[in-house]
Prior knowledge:
- It comes from Staurois parvus.
- InterPro entries: WH-like_DNA-bd_sf.
- This is Paired domain-containing protein.
- By secondary structure, the protein is an all-alpha fold.
- It has a domain at about 20-60.
- About 50% of the residues lie in helices and about 0% in strands.
- It is built from 5 helices and no strands.
- Helix 1 (about 20-30) packs antiparallel against helix 2 (about 35-45) and helix 1 crosses helix 3.
- The longest helix is centred in the middle third of the chain and has 14 residues, at about 45-60.
- The termini are far apart.
Amino acid sequence: MHTASTNICERMGRSQELSKSKHGTIIGCHLCNKSIHEICLLVNIPRSTVSGIITKWKPLGTTATQPPNGKPRKITELGQHMLKRSVQKSPTYCRPPNFVSSEGNF
Length: 106
């Protein structure tokens, strides 16, 4: 029979965020020269999560989520799909009036 567990490794749906205090505990232990293995045993979090938090903290100095890089897209994927469908459905409607193709098909 399966019993309820508080270990984050043994539960389904591991995509939940860790609290800021857990992040602070991990970074504090790292600054006290504890190994990743010791930290994951202490905090009861997977080794990959602990190492991910530490590698994120080293260059940035923070574990907060950063904004995405680059300029946002002007057209969404849904809009792009709709535009592509309308062009395929009636290509003559979307073509400029004086357009001449290099192949001479238009």
